[in-house]
Batch of 2 targets.
Target 1
Amino acid sequence: MDYVTQIIDPPPSRTQLLLDGVRALRKPKLEGAPLLPRECLVRSAVALSAGAIAAYGHACGFRREQGVPLSYPHVLAFPLHLMLLTRPSFPYPASGMVHLANRIHQHQRLHEGQALRLQVWCERWVAHTKGQALSIATRAYSADALVWQSDSLYLRRDVKAPVGEPWEDALTLQEDGLLRSQRWAVPADLGRRFAKVSGDFNPIHTSVIGARIFGFRRAIAHGMWTLGRALAAQQPPGGLEHAQAHCDFKLPIFLPGQVTLWNRPVTGPRREFEVRNAAGDKPHMRGLFVWNENRQ
Amino acid sequence: MSDYSFNPAPTRRVAIIGGNRIPFARSNSVYAHDSNQDLLVAALQGLVDRYNLHGQCLGEFAAGAVIKHSRDFNLARESLLSTTLSPQTPAYDVQQACGTGLEAALLVANKIALGQIDVGIAGGCDTTSDAPIGINESLRHTLLAANRAKGMGDKLKALLKVRPSMLFKPLLPRNGEPRTGLSMGEHCEAMAKRWQIKRLAQDELALTSHQRLNAAYTRGFFDDLISPYRGLARDNNLRADASLAKLAGLSPAYDRHNGTLTAGNSTPLTDGASVVLLASEAWAAEHGLPVLAYLRTGETAAVSFVDGTEGLLMAPAYAVPRMLKREGLSFADFDFFEIHEAFAAQVLCTLKAWEDADYCRERLGLDAPLGAIDRSKINVNGGSLGCGHPFAATGGRQLAALAKTIHDNGGGRGLISICAAGGLGVTAIVEK
């Protein structure tokens, strides 16, 4: 499929994204198979700003010695994800798209001050058991080299006969032997705090009323916060070179509350983990974090 | 410039002359209105009175507290100035979580051994009743920003960011590991599960601790180790009537469904202070003071607990074999073991680890397990489960009690082991 490259400059404002989001609340009923949006959105030079990284890191619990957080470039690309999902050409209401999973690969160490060229496009439809899923590709280049990439899976629930290849990429892990290793308090204002550093002001995260409108009894934590927190908790000191973070989002985390991190005693630079509720019997996220692996 | 500043390096035996502590009190009980400094002054003045050190200028006083107010930046020195010791005695603060008291003693002892000083006092104190409560972090940042701002206008602008909610959400001290968010009890619960420590074994150890502490009080063992304070003459955590039935009735404290740790087999938050008088043999002889025992050496270890490689409180398991190897000793060479009982389960995990051949080989790098320790040699005059555990005061309590035990025994050798937050462990050998 041919994509139409659109340079996005300046980046969309928060107001613009919110307006687009409101406009995209309703979509005409879909006739036939959904069409994949054909835009490839590009930001030619987004700086990894030290201040923004510090604010993001603080919200997720990253320490300065851990370098640029593996999950951070997602924040820079997220407005472009929203632009795609709120386009008139996108067949479903943006608000109903649930972030299901993310696959991040970093190919080179990232540095503060480095400029990244970001490309974001809707790559393919995925037939999910729960509805129609969509994979959005994000690629980050530095000096023409691919340094970081992410594939995000979003789901429109309850679509009968979804198109695309079936999704067979779900993370499996041996749940036996997972031990609770950490507990995190998730304060009531976590959604607002993470919204400020991530630019994701979805009302289901930032206010109880907003959450109620969309069917949640309370505000819920950003999935990408949960991923960031889990990476921060498990990454040793020192920046990452090659690294992968895979996560599947499960049940939402209601705010405020407490969640626990479950993993197993270390056997090398690889962590299989789950973020669960305080009692440890319900999963919020399943993840895999691998770093500095030999890429042979 | 000299080649080596310690030249000639003297190594002298470090004599433990004696110790003093105030009775330990459960948090928010008798010492609820005492500060760390109040407690430390009481213990230190008691020692000065007991050994008639009034007006004397000593080599140094090293002490600390784990939970400290920022105003207590010079706690040891400020405490010293409130006693009748010469104000010309230097002092400094030490802080190594629950290892503070013993680490302070090792620091003072090393200076004595090297000939830098002849006599010193080591100690520690803690209160969780008079705990520091910080102002809200957002409020603190706002106030600091206002402080940095130049000119009244900018200062006021910065202060406009103060929100009423900031005033009602103070920063409270936490009894948890900063890097895991889990309480120490939860960490120990995980250790107990890993080592399959039974509830009954924990309760039995707790009962023994109370019984032996009570027996020690009854025969007057603590008469020259404790100065009464605020009407308290004995540790008020001591339950002379403790029984297995009563302990068995307590519900699990850290894991309601599958837990084995209870309020009975875990130490409570405690207020208290302890100090120990250390000196060279020459100083002791000069002052006509008998030597209880000698502090031979110490060893500190740390474990990697954040990534789950090792249990939080397992560091002494590593420190002890290292120290024994260095000194050419084995468990058979010891008559007494003074093991800090943060939790009965943590003591039992450590004992089990030392008996486990696989663990000793794989984790501790030993050809053969260290072996079992005769329980009748462990904490013969009671332990932390009986008397309580004012974090930094535990090392001084153990050191003085062990020295006296050895002295009363007419000689012998004892081992001290203390586990601490942050995966730390401090151990030492005392002998005569």
Target 2
Amino acid sequence: MAAATGIKGEDRQRAIAGWLFMSPTLLIFGVFIIIPILFALYFSLTDWNGISPPGQANFIGLKNFQDTLIGGGIRQSDFFKALKNTTYFALGVVPTQTALSLLLAVIVNQAWLRFKGFFRTTYYFPSITSSIAISLMFLFFYQKSGLINQVLGSLTFGHWQSIAWMADPRGLVHIILEALGVTIQNAPDFVKTEVLGLTIWDWISGPSIALMAIMIMNTWTTIGTMMVIFLAALQNVPGYVYEAAQIDGASAWTQFRRITLPLLRPTLFFVITLGLIGTYQVFDQIYVMSGGGPAKTTLTVAYLVYRSGFTNSDMGMAAAIAILLFIIIFTLTMIQRRITGSEADV
Amino acid sequence: MTTVATNTGTAVAEREGRGAWHTVKLILSYGLLFLLAAAFIYPFLLAIGTSFKTLPEINQTPVAIIPREFTLEGYQRLFGFNVGRWTINSAIVAVLITLGNVFFASLAGYALARVPFPGSRVAFLAILGTMMIPGIVLIIPMFIILKTLGMINSYSGLIVPKIITAFGIFLMKQFFESVPRELEEAARIDGATPFQTFFRVVLPTARPALVALIIFSFQGAWNDFMHPLIVVTTNKALYTLPLGLALLRGGMGQNLQWNSLMAGSMLTTVPMAIIFFIFQRYFIEGISYSGIKG
């Protein structure tokens, strides 16, 4: 009897301790994440400007969402421009950074390689540097007379024509088409058809030179982190697996395809997910380097959220776009997870 | 006899072939790695060099690392913009956020890992859920609540919302799950309360996890731009380094004074770099750890 009360008392003591230990977390998360999200859901249905007292905001129903998705005005075209740019950004950056970081990890993981620590440290260093500092540095390098043009100049023995990277709104696909003789003037008429606020010609533009400049910088910055993640996974592969394959006469490429890649699959999908979430949130770099220009070709969805709320004083609209962005990222992650799940089972 | 001889011959030839291939592989690998290392190091060296150049020299030779005429002009102008204050603000904010994270994340991580309390599963899932919400999506809700609470343009607005992160809680939870239970049971048999067990017995074993947490919290807070951007709207005395720098660049318009901008970038980078080189091992371990867990 006495023992039973003792255990009960101890249980209660532990329950109290558990909740006490958790209370600061619950308080902060509740006040600064959960409640604000509910607020944002409400304000996305209002015309609040972010300056006047929130109580004075008018309830306008789904108008912000309608304007953004089907309104036909500048709000719709800006949103889909931003979505287009962000998608090009992700399509360019995610595969490149994943492939390059995997290649680097495989090389740095080789047993015979020396200076491992040096390479790892060097490649990882940009990951710990402030995004603002890196953006300012690259803004300097991307000038017409800057480092990037000069390096490209010497690599091509002077055949490179210097470009003002951050001021160039021409899209990659448009440039290629123009080289093949196709311009908006002689293109078939259907490309002038408007779909979701943009013409088909606009949709297929490809990333602009300015956006590509930011994409290259972004890849440069994130490769190190991804490499370290791959390295950790590679180091978990026991060496005897490769030794057995070598005895069986498997080539390095076969070993990579048949052993390394299947074992890395979960890590691979993790890195891709990380890349997707990161690229769909690009903001700091845009703020410092381009402000969405030239010709709105570096306007990303994340930057549009900020611009709507804080530059255009349309906080209701900003809340609506933020919710749409959440849905987009959530959907992409779920698709990614589904692929991971089914693929990992194989 | 002949068969053996032939076999040996083939083996030698094979080994020689592999030797040649090995040399090619060596050259290609080292070539690629060193070239890439240069692509990572040169930009930082050029930024440092540029921060000590005069403006005319920057225009003339924008890619030379060593300044012909060494000047502190860039730094002096920067300090005229009150960069000292920005640095102090960054330090205060980063240190307080780090301390908060270490303390609160350890408590929460331990509770979730080891204290069986009713509702722990729900609490865990709720925290997991918040981790899935991208930071950029939260800036509008965050602004709304800070405005409602009157925390815009204040240190508390910069610090308090960031004082606990889901990432920190997970890191500590993972760690505490690996601590042997015997340790706690021994303490309990000796009559220690859950609080005493945590502070006297479990927490001292958590040093590696705590170092990783300290590093990541400090790095996150020191480099953070988005949160200060929405919290500090008018009060220039509250600028942190990244915020001040970004707004300084905006204020310069087309006439960018590169030596000052590079000087500011270096002031932001160097303190993190020092911490990185001291605690390198923990950085790499930490990122690998979170990577595998994710």
